[in-house]
Amino acid sequence: MGGPGESGPRHGVFGKSFGNDITEGKISLPVIFALQRLSEKEKNHLTKILSLHTKKKKLINDAMKIIKKSGAVKDSLKYAENLIDKAWQDIEPYLPRDREKEVEDFKAITYSLVKRNK
Description:
Blueprint: H1 18-23, H2 29-37, H3 40-52, H4 57-69, H5 72-91, H6 100-115
C-alpha cells in the first residue's frame, strides 16, 4: 500500500495511497467512522463504491470526499493520537531514566507518524 510504483490517488493525510484502500474495498477506520455518521444515501453510495473495487479516479475521489466531509479523517487521526498517548502513559514508567534524550526522540517519531502531512 502506497509503495513505489503504485498507482492511484494519494491521500496526504495518511501519507499513503488511500485510493488503493478504496479500490481494494478495505474497511479502514475512516470508513468505519464515516459509515457511523453518514446519511443513508451517502452510506449507500460509499459502500457501493467500496464494493466495486474500482480504479476509476472519479469514484475513488467521490469516496474520499464523502469520508473527509463526514469528519472521519480528522477523528481517525485523533483516535490514533489518543492510542499513542495511552501507549506512552503505559510504557514510560518502564523506560530507562538515563536515556531521556533517546526516549524523547523516539516519542517524537511515534507522534510524527500520525501528524505527517496533516
